[in-house]
Design brief:
Layout (H helix, E strand, L loop, with lengths): L1 H22 L12 H7 L19 E2 L12 H6 L7 H4 L4 H19 L7 H26 L12 E4 L12 E3 H15 L15 H14 L3 H14 L6 H6 L35 E2 L1 H6 L5 H6 E2 L14 E2 L15 H14 L3 H12 L4
Antiparallel strand pairs: 1-4, 2-3, 5-6
Length: 373
């Protein structure tokens, strides 16, 4: 009996060792994230996109061709474009790709924030990875609350329904809707917690810089009408990057047909994000701008003259006075989501205007116009 017991123990030990041998093997083609550097690299996501397909025509700046509206069964695009408020939009929207994608990104940032402290490596890199992930987590919550909740109103924000705050990596979490005020408090805390650890020149253009973080901070304050704080953050952002791409000079040099400005080489871009992906400008003919927006561009506006097509007979209705972006992303790269220094300048100008400092506001606008018109 004793011999049998010893034999069973030996077999169990051998079996356990064999199992352990195979569970310790990383599956072929897989990557185990276990170092601080690897978590930091996870922040970089070059093709980050926020699809707006099922609500893009709520914008007055977009246009639909007649053939896509007249005589067609109303779909969500037609209903939004024609502002048909009697239609049951809810029944036409089974899901929102924007909503799902933004929360998928938040889950990525939460993975970094929740797990990086237990990884191998330098504590400074761990702090940096967490800080960058917090900035992007704040950014994505900001997009969500401003798409799926009421605008911030100081009088009602504490009771207005907002969105679900996802503050940690937890696959079993049962999130509940927070108020608009709670979401904004969470966003601002993430940004403020991150700022001391961010870099002026991050690892690559897909990591958030100090200029981007302060620009986002300015935007959040401005949406809350906290003008003094927004102004200070905008000025701080511009202290790190105040470059404006000179489109007037670019036109004189021959524009995109002569000189390509590829991704990562546009000095005024603070963050590279998109609606559908980094090649979306190649199919921009499906995103036609309205006649009203087209009219706002003057005859000598370099932004329009360099990049837009207003004459293509197949992509535009004759006589519609519309246009579309007609420049390949490999010739001039313009991210459709994210922030640029020019937006920071405009936020600063608005702050001056709200403080009744109109000359300072106009001076900023003229500074931008000199590079555009």
């Amino acid at each position: 009996m004793k011999r049998i017991n010893l034999l069973l123990i030996s077999l169990a030990t051998i079996t356990f060792m064999a199992c352990e041998k195979y569970t310790d093997v990383t599956p072929k083609g897989s990557l185990i994230v276990e170092t601080a550097t690897q978590f930091h690299e996870m922040v970089s996501l070059p093709n980050r996109s926020y699809p707006i397909n099922n609500f893009q025509y709520l914008s007055d700046d977009q246009w639909m061709r007649e053939a896509n509206v007249i005589g067609r069964t109303p779909n969500i695009d037609i209903i939004n474009f024609t502002f048909n408020e009697t239609a049951d939009r809810v029944s036409l929207l089974g899901a929102s790709s924007f909503y799902s994608q933004a929360y998928a990104y938040i889950n990525r940032w939460n993975t970094i924030i929740s797990l990086v402290d237990n990884s191998k490596g330098d504590n400074a890199i761990k702090q940096l990875a967490k800080a960058e992930a917090k900035v992007y987590r704040a950014h994505d919550h900001f997009l969500l609350v401003n798409h799926y909740a009421k605008a911030y109103d100081p009088q009602t924000a504490a009771t207005d329904g907002g969105i679900c705050i996802m503050d940690k990596f937890d696959l079993e979490a049962q999130p509940r809707k927070s108020t608009v005020a709670q979401v904004y408090d969470f966003i601002q805390k993430d940004i403020d917690d991150a700022l001391p650890f961010l870099q002026e020149k991050p690892l690559d253009v897909y990591h958030p810089s100090l200029a981007f973080a302060y620009a986002l901070k300015a935007k959040v304050h401005l949406f809350k009408l906290e003008i003094a704080e927004a102004k200070a953050a905008a000025e701080k952002s511009l202290s790190y990057n105040s470059q404006i791409f000179d489109m007037v000079l670019y036109a004189a040099e021959g524009g995109p047909s002569v000189k390509a400005i590829t991704a990562g080489n546009n000095p005024e871009v603070l963050s590279y994000m998109y609606m559908t992906g980094n090649t979306e400008l190649n199919i921009a003919y499906i995103n036609i701008i309205s006649p009203e927006l087209r009219t706002l561009f003057g005859n000598n506006d370099a932004r329009f003259n360099l990049f837009y097509n207003s004459t293509h007979p197949s992509n535009l209705d004759q006589g519609s006075n519309t246009a579309y972006w007609g420049t390949l992303f490999t010739r001039f790269f313009m991210p459709t989501v994210g922030m640029k220094t020019t937006e920071v300048y405009l936020m600063l100008a608005e702050c001056f205007a709200r403080e009744n400092k109109f000359q300072e506001a106009v001076d900023i606008l003229n500074k931008l116009r000199a590079k555009r018109i």
